[in-house]
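> call design_seq(struct)
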C-alpha cells in the first residue's frame, strides 16, 4: 500500500530532553520533503507543535484532530492545513486511525501510550494492518520495549510484538522504512 498520510502520536509537552524536540522537528521536515501528510492531535504545544510546525514550515500538509474538551488545554493549532474538532476523545482517535496509512509514536505521556496500545490491539485483532513505528529517541522507550519482551516471554502475547511495532532510533530510519 502506498503511504500518503502518517498519523503521529506524541506529547503535548516537550519533555526534559532537548533531543525529543529536535527529533520531532527533523521528522516533520522529512515528512514534508517526502510529500507525506501528517495527521495528529491538533495541538500547538510540546512535541505535537514541534512536528506540525516543522512540516508546515517546509511546505507540508498537516491535519489536526482535536476534541472540544481539549481546545483550551492543548492550545489548538490555528495555522494547520485543516483542523477537525470532534465531540469526544473516542471520535478523535477513530479519525486519527482512519486518516493515516501508517503511525509514528514519538515521546509522550499517558495519552500517547493509550493511542499506541490501542493501535497495537486493533492491529492484533485485524481491525487494521497499519505499520506502527516508535521513535525511540535517546532510549525513551527502552523500558517499554523491555516490558513488551517480558509480556512475550511470559506468554501473554499472541505473536511476536516486533512484527507489529517497528522500533527506530532516528527520524531518518523511519523515513527509510516507510518506503514511500
Amino acid at each position: 500500500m502506498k503511504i500518503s498520510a502518517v498519523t503521529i502520536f506524541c506529547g503535548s509537552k516537550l519533555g526534559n530532553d532537548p533531543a525529543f524536540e529536535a527529533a520531532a522537528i527533523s521528522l516533520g521536515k522529512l515528512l514534508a520533503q517526502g510529500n507525506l501528510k501528517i495527521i495528529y492531535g491538533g495541538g500547538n504545544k510540546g512535541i505535537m507543535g514541534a512536528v506540525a510546525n516543522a512540516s508546515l514550515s517546509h511546505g507540508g500538509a498537516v491535519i489536526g484532530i482535536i476534541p472540544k474538551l481539549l481546545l483550551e488545554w492543548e492550545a489548538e493549532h490555528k495555522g494547520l492545513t485543516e483542523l477537525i474538532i470532534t465531540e469526544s476523545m473516542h471520535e478523535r482517535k477513530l479519525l486519527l486511525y482512519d486518516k493515516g496509512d501508517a503511525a509514528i509514536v514519538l515521546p509522550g505521556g499517558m495519552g500517547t501510550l493509550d493511542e499506541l496500545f490501542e493501535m497495537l490491539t486493533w492491529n492484533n485483532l485485524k481491525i487494521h494492518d497499519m505499520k506502527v513505528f516508535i521513535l525511540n529517541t535517546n532510549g525513551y522507550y527502552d523500558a517499554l520495549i523491555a516490558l513488551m519482551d517480558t509480556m512475550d516471554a511470559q506468554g501473554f502475547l499472541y505473536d511476536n510484538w516486533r512484527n507489529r511495532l517497528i522500533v527506530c532510533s532516528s527520524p531518518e530510519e523511519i523515513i527509510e522504512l516507510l518506503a514511500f
